[in-house]
Amino acid sequence: MKTIKLVILATLLFSFFSFVPVLGQNTGPNTVNDTIWSTTFDWEDPTADRGWSLPDGWTIVDNTDFGYPWIWMKDSIQIGNVVQRVPDHFESNDDGCINIPVQGYVRIDGAWQANPADTYIQTPPIDCSESSGVVVSFNQFFRLCCSGFELLMGVTNDDGVHWAFYDMMFGTGVNTYTPPRYKSVEVNISDVAAGMPDVQIRFWFRNAWDYFWMIDDLALTEASSYDLVLEDSWLRMDGGWDEHIGHLNYLPMNQIGGEIPDGGNVGDLSFGGALINFGMNDAEDVYINTSIQRNGAEVFSENSETTLLWLLDRDTLNLTQTYLPDDYGDYQVSVEAVQPEDERPSNNVNQINFTINDTLLMRADMSPESSANSGGWGDGYNAGDMCGMIYDIFVPTEIN
Predict the structure, then answer these.
(1) DSSP readout, 315-361?
(2) What is the third-level CATH fold of 4-23+227-393?
(3) 267 and 257 in contact (C-beta within 8 Å)?
(4) Is CATH 3.40.640.10 the right assignment for the domain spanning 35-222?
(5) What is the pLDDT of residues 136-184, one digit of tens each?
(6) CB 325 within 8 A of CB 331
(7) Report field, pTM of the whole predicted structure over 0.85
(8) 26-36: per-residue pLDDT in tens?
């Protein structure tokens, strides 16, 4: 099928630009099951010189000679040339959080010091001996630069002789603020912590020399017997060849519907999801349901085939049915992971929106995901650079 590639270019001058997420979910910390141990980092101490005190049993270690440790903060902190406040999604943001303000460290007195941080903060021993399943949850916010950086959560049950480490960046790129789906984290650590009397959690920040990592509302809770989690979901649009053309938030009606020689139509939507079994029991009869509403009325609802997930097992499921929008309107796609005994269905659903209209073609939904400042352009290093966005035009049309 013949198509026209429309490329929109913009010259970068002294401004900023942002990109928006296509998918994402923010399930929040585990608030359903019994709490084993928790802290909101209420460490304020007016009698201390620095305004806070480290509680007994906690450890902060700086593995460098530069003096770049984790610290406590309450309202906001000067980080180089940026004032960073405690974010709104921290549930206890009024009593403080822990933070590694590495940008402030490497820009002391306005001079650049290209020395990456290497520091960790570690909890006292936590008794999980009565728990058959353990989930650690917390709220976080980070942005990092420039390469090789690591945000790790470590778990030990033998006073640090052995560690299990978990990546808390989840593939987030350089200079990118924390994507919404990773602002509230839950990790099932039952294989390391369940039944153990001395469990310790370590947050380790390594090899970054710009920006920050902030953590609040740390808790260890009993794992559910049945807890299916939708880790990711996707909506793909058929462009008439093997490669799909990605998600579009706004699409003209006359750009879809053309027949594809091998079957189907341009604009056919397909759906899928990535799942993990967080519960302590095997998850049977697991499937993905996709439902679509147009202007509030349901126009599509189909299920995938079922599967079985073992404890902490992951899988992806895709619908065999596709959907082709056939009228103008605002569409809301809901992708839901379903398991009959699931005790926490709130972390199973993701929603994706798009609009079929006359002439507007746009990938963005106007909600910012990240940004770049104009510092690199101030000296002319990036002046004249261009960024582009490709759109597929299938029939002649007026496009806004």
Answers:
(1) EEEE-S--B---SSEEEEEEEEEE-TT-S-GGGSEEEEEEEEESS--
(2) Immunoglobulin-like (2.60.40)
(3) yes
(4) no
(5) 999 999 988 877 889 999 999 999 999 999 999 988 888 888 888 899 9
(6) yes
(7) no
(8) 334 444 579 99
